[in-house]
Every structure is written in structure tokens, then in C-alpha cells.
Design a protein that fits this description.
996 residues, two-stranded antiparallel ribbon, mainly alpha
């Protein structure tokens, strides 16, 4: 024998050939009951039907003898081999609970049709040609058939007729679309099978009629099971199926499945009203089925495969939210229906608290008015009882809300004549729902009923005890006795006037009270016209002091005060002072429009013809217009980034104001410093650079600083980012951080020009320039490599400072923090600023805060992990900072994962981090394995666990090494994609840790 001659590989002992299932059918059940059988059940169906492809399409000629021993029944015209294989295929389908979802996903359309035709033929006991057999005809059932089983087969077939058309349309639509690959669940439904589907369209309505007939059928619906089909053996000459082994299912389970299939089809043909009707019926029957069957037997459903999640999707598609109407909606409907079910709605609301109390109070008033007009629509006694019931339920709701207890007492006083009935209603409704209330609500109710006992228990006498006896849940008789024993009558007896409840304040003509009332109105009003009228009225009382002194909170700028005080005492002085004071109050409350209106009215007042010759009035008008400009600027800064309505005019006014300050001198009227600083800051934020290059008076450092920053920007523009040192702003800001010997300055002065400017900066480029200056100054003063900060435009500034010891670096950090907090308030996703803020926290050893800002910067740069993390968003400087932060926070494996982000993985630092003692205890080590893409690092972790004797963790790490995308032989594109996916996964985990 030639030992080198190739031979057939011997089969494994576990291998079972297909014909063995014919010889020993018990092997089939054993195989199907495995956790993950291979081949799968649908693979079995495919193989069984492929061995007998003739089916019903080409029945054999029975005139000649069949060499295989044909089954010669007058009904079925299959050979023994065909019949045996088809029964095995049906047994597998029964094992799958006739789940059309699974059969449609894995079987071709031709095999689906063959399987259904075989089912119809075997259950009928004779050959049935589809689709001609549309209705259940007794003549179609042979001697070996079963009526209920044939009914089951036809129902399954007509369901498939509807579903096949929906599925085909979904596949064609997906293939024609340009939005991605084919739907994974529909891959077996290929277009070569579509020729079978159009033939179903003429019979679709008959299928719908048949399914509707099944829904109305009173007989029990039976489902064929695995035991219903008896395999053939070599000794049997004809089939004897056990159709009596079919199990009866609940009608609600059948209806849920059929209405679900009908809803699918009606949505496909865009008959949305019919779809909505069926999905609602499916929902009701599905809910009933779940209550009756699911969870009782512990077995899977016998027939229905409806998914609750998919059903909810169909409900939404049909416009059904699945939620009942809200109580407020039901309240409105009840009002329209003459208050039907109003008591039930209010009782339910006392539990759910959906209806606002304002709506419930309006309801109470509506019913009261309805009864007051003497409506003849109903019984007056019943209408009054309804009114008292609504009042009682509202009182209970008031009490449980813990508010408006006064309203409860007012209601009891209001219905004093019906007080016994109202209190009885209170006891009744509180008692009915007492056990449904929370413990806190029960306590509130008890305390309120004790109050009722104190106030009205004596008046009602025995009737009150009768209420307590009838409704004893809230207050029992024993509690009533104990309460009365603890609350004895007071020793002091009141009488006469003290017992009156209708106190009325008498009308008086006291002039002081009238003047006080007018002054209160003057203080609270915000209308210039109202101020004018009130001033006239108060002036008629001959006041001894100027009227603007009524409210000490009215303050005006000192330059305006210098103009107003010399004016003759009278209406204009008071009117101007009060309007300016009110405008400042309104500006502080951010009511800018009203403040501007008051100042505009005052400016128009100063332009009256009779006041034209007074120079003080002219000055006043000019200064009031400047005050209005200040309010406009404050509004723009506060509402940033929304642009002003008339930006061009606002810019012109600011320029005129700065020009007035530049040209002013001697006795010329000049704007005050606060206004000038605001004008300069606004022009800076609006990129009006040329307007700030005017000669600046040294008395206004705020304008000078804005001008210097403008020059720095122009240098950037002029030299296009090349290194050009700018010293103007540097030399202005540097002295602000001086720390002379003996000085105890610990913070920047809040009224200093730098702090005032920082509060008004909004333009990102201007903020970046100032941040770069402060960061560069910090690096020079600190002079430590590990404490350096990175910012944009740092090339603008000098690289050294003479005598660094006289400067206070803490003040620089304070200014940086102040500016960064202000900037991130308006631009929270600015990546360079977030990184710089992280550097500030890192330098201060606030490592957790630093990580939070670093991670926020990376999250923003990757658009919340929707794009891959790339350079220059992340660089080695940032990674090294993050590694340092993680190490200091005890997150050593986190630091090791970060070591992969370098251009070249820092194995030394990574191995050191993994080897830290606390790594396996405080760092959630296992959760980061899925974020590692460097095989060397994973191999080190495997060996490290081996040395530690941590077998389970070692196996977990080994499983990640074996992932296909981490194979060292992969091309660079696959490796980059694997790394990018794991980077984003790791970034999301950091975001959950530091940002949430």
C-alpha cells in the first residue's frame, strides 16, 4: 500500500450525516436543544428541503411503479424519502415556534413557499396547490388531514402573503437608497426571488379577509408542535401524524399576532387609519396576553412573536403615544360635558398632582357661578353637592401641597351655612384615599383635621363625632378624645369686639398718610409720565426737602451731580435726578430698555424751547445722552454675542465720545472715565481697531490699555505670525504686578484698569492676545520647565524680565484665572483656552481639575467623540501633562493607556505605571483593556498578571490580544483605525470620570 497516496480525511465521531436523522429521529431533538446548534435550525430546513426539491411543482407519475416504494395514498403524492424529509423540516419549523421573522431572515423565498406548501398538504392529507387554496373548504381536507391543523397552516400562509410584500418593499427601498449597505436582517431576501412576490398581489385582499375571518372565529385556535409530526420509518407505508398533539392558545395571543401583521401591511400600503385600528387592537390583546400567560408557565410563547419595543414603534408610527390623556385635558373635556366625572378626576389629581391649583380654583369659581345664575339644566340640590365636593377636594389638595392653608379656612368661612356638609365631605374624600397618600401627606392631613377639630368641633357637637366614627382612617375616636383632653379651654375669655371677624379700616383724611402713599408710588413706578404726575401732586403739599431725597437709593454719577445741584430747586431738578437714579437701578436689574426710555424722555425735556438759553441745561442734556450711551454699551456686553440693533450708530457715538475726550481740555465738557472705558472696550470687541489709535490722555489708563492691545493685534496682521516683539502692552501691564518690599498686596485691585477691562472683554482674538501675555509673563516669573503654560501668540512678547523678584506671580495667576473664567463663560468650547485653563490648574497642583479641562478640550475637539482624535488637537506636551495628572490621582493604568498617545509609545513610563502596587485596586484596571491597541503593552499586562497569580485577569487580557484588528500583520490602515476606535473609547471613559 502506498502510504503517500492521498486518502479521505476520517470524519469526527460527533459528525452526523443527514440520513442519520431519518434512521434515528431522536437525534434531531437532541441537536436542536443545544445552546448554539451547528448547523442551525434554518440550515436543517434548507438541507432537508434541498434533498427533496420536486415538492408539489412536479409530482411523480404514479402510473409506473416507484422503485423507492412510493406512498400510494390518494392524498399525498410524495415518495417516502420526500415525505420523510419534509416532515423533518416541519418538525424543525415547529421547534422554532413557526417564527416567520427567523424563517424570512434565513430562508430564500422559494424555500419559504415550499415549506408552507408542504405544511398545507400534510395537514390537509392531500396535495394542496398554492396560491389557489385560499379559503378553508371541507373538500380540501383528505382522510389523513385535520381541520384545525389545516386552519393553522392556512393562517400561517396568509400571514406570510402579507409579510412577504412588506419585506420585499423594504429590501428594494434599501438597495435603491444611497445611505449604506443592505439591511443585515434582510440579506437572504434577494431580488432573484422577487418574481414570486408579484403573484401574491391579486390574492392579498383574500388573505386579509381570511385573517379577519380567523379573528372572528369562535373555535379555539390550535398550534402544531414538535410532537405533532411523526417521522417515517422503514416499516410505515403511510403517514400517521399526531395532529391531536397541537396545543390550544389564548384568543388574545392569536389576535395580538394577527392584528400586528395586518398593521404592518396597512402601513406598507399607506392605509393609516386601518393600521391605527389594528395596532390599537394588537396593543390591547398583547397587554391582556401578558397579564394572563407570560411568566406563569415559564415556557416561551407558543405562537405570538410580537416584541414590546417594536410594537411601541408601530404605535408611534400610527400616531398613538400609548399614554392616556392627561388629567388637565380630561378636566377640560369634563367641563365641556357639564362636569361629568369631575369628582373622579379631582380625586385622581390629589394623587398625581398634575392639574395646577389655579385651574382647580377656576373650576370651583365656575361651578359656583354656574349655580348662582340658577341653571335649570339639573337638580339644584345635586349641583350644590357637586360644588361642595369640588371645594372639599380642593381643600385636601391645598393641605397636601403644604401651601395656601388660608384658602382652606376662607372656604370653610365662605360656606358657613353648609359647613356640616362640607366638613363631612372633607372626612369622606380624605378617608377614601387616605391609604394611597404618602406618609408626609397623611401627617399634613392629620394636622389640618386637628385644626378643624379646634375651630369647629365644638360647634358641630355630636355630628362631628359621627363624622369621625364613620371615617376613622384620618382621625380615630381615641385620637379625638386625646386631642380634646390636651387642648383645654383658654382661661382668658374674649368677647365683644375681640370676637368680630369683619374688621374694617376706617377711611381717614390724614395728609401724612396721603403723602406717604404718593411717595411709595413714586419710588416704585417706572414710567416717566407717572413720575411727572406724582411730582406735581407731591409738590402741592409744600415739601421741606427736595423730592429726589425721598429715596436714598437714587444715586447719580458725580459729574451729573455737579450739574444738577446748582440748578434752581424745582421740577426739572427733581425730575432729572429721579429719572437718572431710576435708570441706574433698572440697569443694575438688566432692564435696559426701560432705563433707556427714561433717559430719552429726560433728554427731550432738556431740549424744550423755554430752556434753550441755560448753559447748565445744555450740559445736562449732553451728559444724559452720554449716560444713555453707557446703558446701551452695558446692554451689548451683557447680551453678547447678540449684536446691537443699530451697531453702526452705536460705533459712531463711541468714536465721538472718545474724540471728545481726546480734544477736551480746560473748561470743555468731557465724558466721565467709566463711559470712556466702556466705549474703548466696545470698540475693541467690535474690531474697530483704527478708532483706538488716537492720542490717549494718561488720565485714562483703560483707553491706553485698549490702544496697546490694538497695536499688538495690528502687529499680528502686519507680520503674519512671524516673531515681532510687541512691548507697548507688555510695558503697560508689567507694573500692575509689582510687589515692592513691605507690600502686603494679596490680590489685584477690583477697580484697577486690568480687572475692569477683563470684565468687558468679549472678542476671542483680543482675549487670546491678553491670555498669551499673562501666560508668557507667568512662565518668565516662575521659570520652571514643569510649570510652563502654552497659549497662542506667545511669540509677541519679550522673553525676559529684569529683576523678576519684584513681581508677584500669584497676581498673574489671579488675572489669568479671572480672564479664563470670563472667556469660557461666553465660549465654553474654545480648545486653546480649555488647555490653558488645564495648565493653570496643573501648575496649582489641582490635578483632577486639570484633567477635567484637558478632557473637555479633547471632547470638544473631537465633536463629542464623533471624529477621530488627531494632531494638533493632542500633542506630546498635553499627553505628558495628562499622564502626570493620572499618576498623581492614583490612576496608573489610565496613565499607561495614555502612553500610547505619544508619537512613539513610551514603554518605560507605561510599564512603570502598570507595575505600581495600587494599580489593581484603585484604577478599575480591567475596564481599560479594551482601550489598549499596542500588542506589546497587552503582552506586558499578561505577563504581569501571570507573575501576580491573577489567572482570571490574565485570560481577560489574552482575549484582547487575540482580536483580529490587533494582529501585527495587518496593514497600516487597519492599525490606524483600530487605534482611533480605542482612543475614542478611552476618551469617553475619561469624560464619564472627570466631566460627569
Amino acid at each position: 500500500m502506498d502510504l503517500l497516496k492521498p486518502r479521505t480525511v476520517p470524519l469526527s465521531e460527533e459528525t452526523i450525516l443527514w440520513f442519520e436523522f431519518l434512521l434515528k429521529p431522536s437525534l434531531l431533538a437532541k441537536h436542536l436543544n443545544k445552546a448554539n446548534p451547528d448547523p442551525s435550525p434554518t440550515d436543517f430546513i434548507t438541507q432537508f428541503l434541498a434533498k427533496a426539491p420536486e415538492g408539489q411543482t412536479h409530482p411523480p407519475d404514479l402510473t409506473a411503479p416507484d422503485p423507492d416504494g412510493a406512498h400510494r395514498s390518494d392524498g399525498l403524492k410524495y415518495t417516502k424519502k420526500q415525505l420523510a424529509l419534509k416532515i423533518l423540516a416541519l418538525k424543525v419549523a415547529a421547534f422554532m415556534r413557526w417564527d416567520l421573522d427567523k424563517l424570512e431572515r434565513t430562508l430564500s423565498v422559494s424555500l419559504q413557499i415550499q415549506l408552507l406548501a408542504d405544511l398545507c398538504s400534510i395537514t390537509a392529507g392531500k396535495m394542496v396547490a398554492l396560491p389557489s387554496s385560499l379559503l378553508q373548504d371541507p373538500a380540501l381536507i383528505g382522510t389523513d388531514g385535520s381541520r384545525h391543523s389545516f386552519n393553522f397552516a392556512l393562517t400561517l400562509y396568509h400571514r406570510w402573503v402579507l409579510r412577504a410584500q412588506v419585506l420585499r418593499a423594504a429590501v428594494i427601498k434599501n438597495i435603491k437608497s444611497n445611505h449604506g449597505p443592505a439591511v443585515p436582517d434582510l440579506t437572504t431576501f434577494v431580488l432573484r426571488d422577487e418574481s414570486s412576490i408579484p403573484a401574491l398581489e391579486p390574492i392579498t385582499q383574500l388573505s386579509i379577509d381570511y385573517l379577519n375571518q380567523v379573528l372572528m372565529e369562535p373555535q379555539t385556535f390550535r398550534v402544531l408542535t414538535y410532537e405533532s409530526f411523526v417521522p417515517l420509518d422503514s416499516n410505515s407505508e403511510h403517514t400517521q401524524q399526531r395532529f391531536d398533539a397541537a396545543i390550544a392558545i389564548k384568543p388574545c395571543e392569536l389576535r395580538a399576532q394577527l392584528h400586528y401583521d395586518l398593521c404592518q401591511y396597512y402601513l406598507y400600503v399607506q392605509k393609516y387609519e386601518l393600521a391605527r385600528q389594528n395596532v390599537l387592537l394588537c396593543k390591547d390583546n398583547y397587554a391582556q396576553w401578558q397579564r394572563e400567560e407570560i411568566g406563569r408557565t415559564g415556557l416561551p410563547p407558543a405562537y405570538c412573536t410580537v416584541s414590546a419595543e417594536v410594537l411601541q414603534g408601530y404605535l408611534l408610527a400610527c400616531g398613538v403615544t400609548g399614554e392616556p390623556d392627561g388629567l388637565l385635558q380630561r378636566l377640560h373635556e369634563s367641563i365641556l360635558n357639564h362636569y361629568s366625572d369631575i369628582v373622579m378626576i379631582l380625586k385622581e389629581d390629589n394623587l398625581r398632582k398634575e392639574i395646577p391649583m389655579t385651574q382647580r380654583k377656576l373650576l370651583e369659581l365656575n361651578i359656583e357661578g354656574y349655580n348662582a345664575i340658577g341653571s335649570t339644566d339639573g337638580n339644584p340640590i345635586e349641583q350644590k353637592e357637586l360644588e361642595l365636593a369640588v371645594v372639599a377636594l380642593n381643600i385636601i389638595r391645598y393641605v397636601m401641597d403644604g401651601e395656601n392653608i388660608l384658602s382652606c379656612n376662607v372656604a370653610l368661612q365662605k360656606y358657613k351655612n353648609q359647613q356640616p356638609k362640607l366638613i363631612e365631605s372633607l372626612f369622606q374624600y380624605a378617608d377614601e384615599q387616605y391609604e394611597q397618600f404618602s406618609l408626609e401627606e397623611r401627617g399634613l392631613l392629620k394636622r389640618y383635621f386637628y385644626k378643624i377639630i379646634t375651630l369647629y368641633g365644638g360647634e358641630l357637637g355630636p355630628a362631628f363625632e359621627a363624622y369621625v366614627q364613620s371615617y376613622s382612617k384620618v382621625v380615630s375616636l381615641q385620637e379625638l378624645k386625646d386631642f380634646r383632653a390636651q387642648h383645654t379651654q383658654p382661661e382668658t375669655q374674649l368677647g365683644g369686639v375681640a370676637l368680630q371677624s369683619d374688621w374694617v379700616i376706617p377711611e381717614t383724611k390724614n395728609p401724612r398718610l396721603e403723602v406717604g402713599q404718593l411717595e411709595r408710588q413714586l419710588i416704585s413706578c417706572t414710567s416717566a409720565n407717572a413720575v411727572r404726575k406724582l411730582l406735581v401732586k407731591i409738590a402741592g403739599t409744600n415739601p421741606s426737602k427736595p423730592l429726589f431725597t425721598i429715596n436714598p437709593s437714587w444715586t447719580i454719577p458725580y459729574p451729573l451731580e455737579q450739574v444738577l445741584i446748582p440748578l434752581q430747586r424745582g421740577f426739572l431738578q427733581d425730575f432729572a435726578y429721579i429719572l437718572i437714579g431710576k435708570a441706574r437701578e433698572l440697569t443694575a436689574r438688566k432692564e435696559y430698555a426701560t432705563a433707556i426710555t427714561l433717559l430719552t424722555v429726560l433728554k427731550n425735556e432738556t431740549q424744550r424751547p423755554e430752556l434753550a438759553g441755560n448753559p447748565l441745561i445744555a450740559k445736562l442734556g449732553k451728559m444724559v445722552s452720554w449716560e444713555g450711551l453707557l446703558v446701551q454699551i452695558q446692554q451689548v456686553l451683557d447680551e453678547w454675542p447678540r449684536k446691537p440693533v443699530d451697531q453702526a450708530q452705536l460705533v459712531r457715538n463711541c468714536k465721538q465720545c472718545l474724540n471728545a475726550a481726546a480734544a477736551g481740555g480746560g473748561n470743555e465738557l468731557m465724558p466721565h472715565a467709566k463711559l470712556l472705558d466702556h466705549c474703548a472696550a466696545l470698540l475693541l470687541n467690535l474690531n474697530e481697531w483704527n478708532a483706538l489709535l488716537v492720542p490717549v490722555d494718561k488720565r485714562f489708563p483703560g483707553i491706553e490699555l485698549c490702544s496697546a492691545i490694538t497695536q499688538a493685534f495690528l502687529d499680528i496682521e502686519k507680520f503674519k505670525g512671524t516673531k515681532k516683539t510687541n512691548r507697548e502692552a507688555w510695558e503697560m501691564i508689567l507694573p500692575m504686578f509689582l510687589n515692592p518690599p513691605g507690600s502686603r498686596q494679596r490680590q489685584l485691585p477690583p477697580d484697577g484698569p486690568l480687572v475692569m477691562l477683563i470684565g468687558k472683554l468679549r472678542e476671542p482674538l483680543v482675549i487670546s492676545i491678553l491670555l498669551s501675555l499673562l501666560a508668557k509673563l507667568h512662565n518668565i516669573l516662575r521659570d520652571e520647565a514643569n510649570a510652563e503654560m502654552n497659549a497662542e501668540y506667545m511669540f509677541l512678547w519679550p522673553s525676559n524680565v529684569n529683576n523678576t523678584s519684584i513681581y508677584n506671580v500669584k497676581l498673574v495667576i489671579e488675572a489669568l484665572n479671572l480672564l479664563l473664567n470670563q472667556a469660557l463663560r461666553y465660549y465654553p468650547n474654545n480648545i486653546p483656552w480649555l488647555k490653558l485653563k488645564g495648565d493653570v490648574e496643573f501648575v496649582a497642583n489641582n490635578f483632577e481639575a486639570a484633567m477635567r479641562y484637558y478632557v473637555t478640550a479633547l471632547i470638544s475637539g473631537t465633536e463629542y467623540c464623533t471624529v477621530h482624535l488627531q494632531r494638533p488637537l493632542v500633542d506630546d506636551f498635553l499627553i505628558r501633562r495628562m499622564v502626570k495628572c493620572s499618576t498623581n490621582l492614583g490612576c496608573f493604568v489610565q496613565a499607561a493607556v495614555l502612553c500610547q498617545f505619544f508619537d512613539e509609545t513610551d514603554y518605560g513610563l507605561a510599564f512603570k505605571s502598570i507595575s505600581e502596587k495600587s494599580a489593581s485596586y484603585s484604577d478599575a484596571m480591567d475596564s481599560y483593556y479594551s482601550c489598549i491597541w499596542d500588542p506589546t503593552l497587552l503582552e506586558f499586562i499578561v505577563n504581569w498578571h501571570y507573575k501576580k497569580g491573577e489567572h482570571k485577569r490574565r485570560l481577560q487580557a489574552v482575549s484582547f490580544i487575540g482580536q483580529l484588528e490587533l494582529n501585527a500583520n495587518n496593514n497600516d490602515e487597519i492599525k490606524r483605525e483600530a487605534a482611533a476606535v480605542r482612543k475614542n473609547r478611552f476618551l469617553r471613559s475619561l469624560a464619564k470620570q472627570y466631566m460627569c
